[in-house]
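Researcher: Last one for today. Full complex below.
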Amino acid sequence: MSAIAFPAPDAGILARRDEIIAGLSGLVAPNALITSDDERRPYETDALTAYRRMPLAVVLPSTTEEVAAVLRYCRAQGVPVVPRGSGTSLAGGAIPQEDAIVIGVSKMNRIIEIDYANRIAKVQAGVTNLAVTGAVSAEGFFYAPDPSSQLACSIGGNIGMNSGGAHCLKYGVTTNNVLGVKMVMLDGSVVEIGGSHLDSPGYDLLGLINGSEGQLGIITEATVRILRMAEGARPVLFGFPTSEQAGSAVAAIIGAGIIPVAMEFMDKPAIEICEAFAKAGYPMDVEALLIIEVEGSDEEMDAQLARIVAIAREHGVTTVKESKSAMEAAAIWKGRKSAFGATGRIADYICMDGTIPTGQLPYVLKRMDEIVKGYGLRVANVFHAGDGNLHPLILYNCNDPVEAQKAEDAGMDILKLCVEVGGCLTGEHGVGIEKRDLMTYQFNPEDLAQQMRVRAVFDERWLLNPAKVFPLEGRVAA
Amino acid sequence: MTIHTPTTEAQACAVVKSVVDSSTPLSIRGGGTRTGLGRPAQAASTISSAGLTGITLYEPAEMVIAARAGTPLALVQETLAERGQMLPFEPMDHRALFGSEGEPTIGAVAACNISGPRRINAGAARDSLIGIRLVNGRGEMIKSGGRVMKNVTGLDLVKLVSGSHGTLGFLTEVTFRVLPRPERLVTLQWSGLSDEQGVALLSKALGSPFEPMAAAHLPAGLAGDQARTLLRLENFSDSIEYRAAELSLLLGEFGVPDRLEGEMPSELWSLVRDAAFFAGTDEAVWRLSLAPTNGPKAIATIARGLPGARWFYDWGGGLVWLAVPPEDDAGAAAIRGALHRFGGHATLVRAPDAVRAAVDVFQPLAEPLMRVTVGIKKSFDPDGIFEPGRMYAGV
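Model: Here's the assembly. Have a good evening.
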């Protein structure tokens, strides 16, 4: 695939590669600088593997001071910088360019402080999402945002993309769970924004930084909220004869004043793919499946489930299957969370991430099916039903360039559909390079120019992750 | 003084363009109940949201409501209540504290990020605000966010504008996510605890699986002779019974709680939400935001230097409302000195204009962040027409 353009590399920078590497080598520990072809290769793409660019060099700092020194140097030299967490972006947020230095935070992976009385954890940016929960789970706490890639993805990357997950219906996304960051600005100055308290003074820079996709600075530390786990949690499978019935059941549950901790939707192709992989006991004779998770004591879960089951029955549910053990519950979630990986075993796929008003669900499901079939391809749907965040997986063969182009085109058509019905291009994966050129579809020129002027306050020369988020044409400085 | 009252977004844009041409700064006015927030800002003319009213979208099953900025907050709340829903963040009403009159608007709730006791669990106004439309200082109509609750498309200008006190633009329409109203509320009350004990109780409760939705400590003398430590539970009735019993057991070391139901506790929580214990006095009122367990420590230090100070704790101890004598710097040096040691920041919410003009109302920012703040203001409002000096002198 080659539809998405990258800026032409700056020949002057490429010509100065040796000099730039020599300059960097004086700023960081010897093992923090990666320059050989073989060692750079893992950094040439992220989870949007159809695109790759070999970076000029990769730096893996161990301290905030090293990050500051490298950024200060790159700014002085006019060299672009691509920040990187764990490289799990599905939108190409961490894909480099030939004239850029990758700054990866993976070595900054220390938990700095845990404070249970104040319910916060202070961690370095390279700590993985799951490691935060791992560090506090013995005391019964957890970190709420849970993207499917949580085993690998970093807190720094989560902040960059404002990551969500299956449980944000109740607990919110990253921006609702981060209280403070330490960030290095492009000029090398180190700032602390927020802290151990619930609101920060002045403009909400923390809110701006969450989801800014590495364009405003590099996060080296974060203070996040940790929450006490519920006494118990129970995912339950609800099988429906049609997607429309599953969708109307979701609306009715919310209408009844019930906010389950998670409501996940899978259509038949997704059920088949995930069941073959995870053996979770998903019903195979239904067209749509909801995984609804309730929390609380056994009695509370029983009571809440009874309410949900009654509503589901009114909407034609044919299968209700409760997890009877922790192992069954884990299998149910394993199936859902490995949906992308399991799909990858049977075909290449691209994963879309639009959000729609949930009332539009039946219409959008039907239209998506028509769109993808129109390109002669197949789609499997898994998504967060409670908040309308869709994840259609478009299956294709990446060795067939024509089919690859069709898959990409189908994806773009789906995202436009999401905007048309009142939704947005991306709910939790970010814009990256993937959706960059659709931004003009969701925003008018004034909207985008305002965003770009804010961006320019932090990076007036477009050196930080410059190929991302905003269309390459029509960029605005301060 | 000129008051512009546009009734359409196009008119609002035209007003802004005209004042840019004549270089006359604009104050922004909603219901006029919170004009005391921030530094006293003098502007030659005013733009009012009074002509932009009405709910533009309400989808209960999608848990989303949108309204024009001048819509009375009360109308939004009544509309939601009719369908068994509510704004999640329990916005404070400033009328008691400021002695102001009028109808608070939904636009000001967004512009000033106004939250209440539920913030500890359900997030602030900025966490529920999912979409805005505003006129920037170039007279352009700008949108950010939308009507869906999960949206990471582009930079999050929604949050940047929330809490900017009108300095970045004139909001015309705001969209919030909403939540179901709980079936039942119960407040548990422990009596006679010290500040340290009270906050320790709240920390233990908030670190339990029983999800208190609000957690406050009122020292002795504020609402009765005895200190009162309050936890509010909100849920279905069967859950409330269970959780109240479990919490009483878990917190047994602090004594046996009273159980408050019906109208009385909601009045009490309104006093907490609105800091109304300080209504009608001439005290200067501060709002301190810090790590909950540091609340009592900071207060112990501050109170030694400011005789006559009164205070209470919300957000499990992480929000301290502090009333002090209004003289001199209204305690600014003592308060910010203590916070330098204990972390967090302080905002001067109520004080005579002369004091609010002389001391930093918002916590002073580190130099790089101040530079960013000035840059962001300029990016929205290059000629500095909106609320000049409302947050920081010269910005």
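The mean pLDDT of chain B is 95. Chain B has three domains: 2-180, 184-274, 276-358.
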